[in-house]
């Protein structure tokens, strides 16, 4: 194969530059789309977290109501002249023990995404303070505006990848916190069910 002429080499370099520029545009588009998905996922998790916290508060209120119900039943036993020996008194269940256990909040891990300065790009808030590798990212051939744009695109891509990494860590933390709340609520439901059964059993004695 004959060696390429100077003109043919210029044409080939021009084609490669155009293809490379288009590739960086696609990469930038994909990372922006991933950021949008991440933001939506974070919002959904926050809403779910609020719902779980509301359920947890309701469980705590039910526990308080059951405590008052136990107290009322024990007072009723006194009024009826029943002997309130330890075996006759409605015993506090494990919920009283759990009530004393303060769920230790998880060590708050660094919330990089939420604490970083933000800028607006294409209508989306993105971090302006991510620590990311700096350029140059390409080896210049034509040294024109297209290569400047490639550098700019790749700089945004690297920044977006850093934000996505930090966002993934924060999502993981939120999910772990919510799993703890769900476990706590499930335990409370079991305890409350036991309390209700015990209260119903004692209430039958006064019929």
UniProtKB/TrEMBL annotation:
Record's keyword annotation contains Ribonucleoprotein: no
GO terms, molecular function: efflux transmembrane transporter activity; SNAP receptor activity; syntaxin binding
Localisation: Synapse, Synaptosome
Listed SUPFAM superfamilies: SNARE fusion complex
InterPro entries membership: SNAP-25_dom (IPR000928), T_SNARE_dom (IPR000727)
UniProt record, GO biological process: synaptic vesicle fusion to presynaptic active zone membrane; synaptic vesicle priming
Coiled coil: 45-79
Keywords: Coiled coil, Repeat, Synapse, Synaptosome
Residue ranges annotated for the T-SNARE coiled-coil homology domain, each copy included: 14-76, 144-206
Segments for region (Disordered): 95-138
Family note: Belongs to the SNAP-25 family.
Protein name per UniProt: Synaptosomal-associated protein
Organism in which the protein naturally occurs: Cyprinus carpio
């Amino acid at each position: 194969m004959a060696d390429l002429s100077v003109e043919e080499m210029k044409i080939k370099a021009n084609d490669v530059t155009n293809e490379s520029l288009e590739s960086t545009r696609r990469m930038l588009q994909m990372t922006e789309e991933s950021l949008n998905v991440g933001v939506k996922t974070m919002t959904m998790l926050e809403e779910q977290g609020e719902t779980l916290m509301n359920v947890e508060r309701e469980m705590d209120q039910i526990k308080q109501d059951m405590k008052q119900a136990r107290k009322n039943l024990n007072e009723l036993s006194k009024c009826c002249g029943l002997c309130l020996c330890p075996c006759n008194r409605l015993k506090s269940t494990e919920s009283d023990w759990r009530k004393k256990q303060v769920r230790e909040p998880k060590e708050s891990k660094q919330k990089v995404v939420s604490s970083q300065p933000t800028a607006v790009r294409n209508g989306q808030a993105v971090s302006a303070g991510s620590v990311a590798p700096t350029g140059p990212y390409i080896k210049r051939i034509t040294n024109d505006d297209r290569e400047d744009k490639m550098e700019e695109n790749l700089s945004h891509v690297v920044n977006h990848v850093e934000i996505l990494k930090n966002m993934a860590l924060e999502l993981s933390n939120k999910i772990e916190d919510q799993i703890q709340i769900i476990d706590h609520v499930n335990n409370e439901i079991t305890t409350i069910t036991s309390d209700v059964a015990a209260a119903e059993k004692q209430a039958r004695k006064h019929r």
